[in-house]
Amino acid sequence: MTKQMFDLKPSQYKCLCASNSESIPGFQHWRNPSKMSKTGTKITFYEDKKFQGRHYDCDCDCADFHMYLNRCNSIRVEGGTWAVYERPNFTGYMYILPRGEYPEYQHWMGLNDRLGSCRAVHLSSGGQYKIQIFEKGDFNGQMYETTEDCPSIMEQFHMREVHSCKVLEGAWIFYELPNYRGRQYLLDKKEYRKPIEWGAASPAVQSFRRVVE
């Protein structure tokens, strides 16, 4: 992450991200263009619909940006795939946003205009995807392995819940309802022995799919 030098007055806030928008008043910061574009990731949050009002630019993980914007009604993703969270510190409802424009919060299936943190999603370098899901915790019970999206776990695997899983390749999203609806959970390449390890309070998973650019 590129370190930044800030000239802050008492009434100003220090940005947690590697870059921030000139539209946020009072910030004076040093920039190195070659460093800023190194990751190729960028997301812009707007207070109003259709990319209007104050905005906040981000090109790295940011644990708390809600102090800079009162609300978020539209988003433009210019590079990378991003996970945006309802509250600071990557908590609350999460939404996965690939490259594109989202003129209203309903376009990212948002419940309201509140967002507080974001992080870039690290995609599979070789385009490989593989996941194993288990009907019981600690990788017990019936196991199913797939490399493809699944709009209905019940229809495809005859499972009502997922109690543990292993992400062998790529990044995946779990959804609490069929057809990629409901609360979302981002799973990186690792093992998850129980639902709480992917951030869920229950094993209610009814669909899942790959995170792709």
Question: What are the main properties of this structure?
Answer:
4-stranded antiparallel beta sheet; Gamma-B Crystallin, domain 1; repeat; mainly beta; structural constituent of eye lens; Beta/Gamma-Crystallin; Beta/gamma_crystallin; Gamma-crystallin S; 2 helices
Helix share, percent: under 10%
Mean pLDDT: 83
Major sheet: 4 strands, antiparallel
At the first level of CATH, what is the class of the largest domain? Mainly Beta
* Side-by-side strand order of the widest sheet: 2-1-3-6
CATH superfamily placement of the largest domain: Crystallins
Q: CATH topology of the largest domain, what is it called? A: Gamma-B Crystallin, domain 1
Number of domains: 2
* Class based on secondary structure composition and strand pairing: mainly beta
CATH architecture of the largest domain: Sandwich
Order of helix and strand elements from N to C terminus: HEEEEEEEEEHEEEEE
Distance, first to last CA: 22 Å
Number of strands: 14
What Rg do the Cα atoms give?
19 Å
* Morphology call: elongated
- Which spans of ≥5 residues are poorly predicted at pLDDT below 50? 1-16, 18-37
Strand content: 35-45%
Number of distinct helices? 2
Domain Beta/gamma crystallin 'Greek key': 41-79, 80-122, 129-169, 170-212
Function: Crystallins are the dominant structural components of the vertebrate eye lens.
Family: Belongs to the beta/gamma-crystallin family.
Pfam families: Crystall
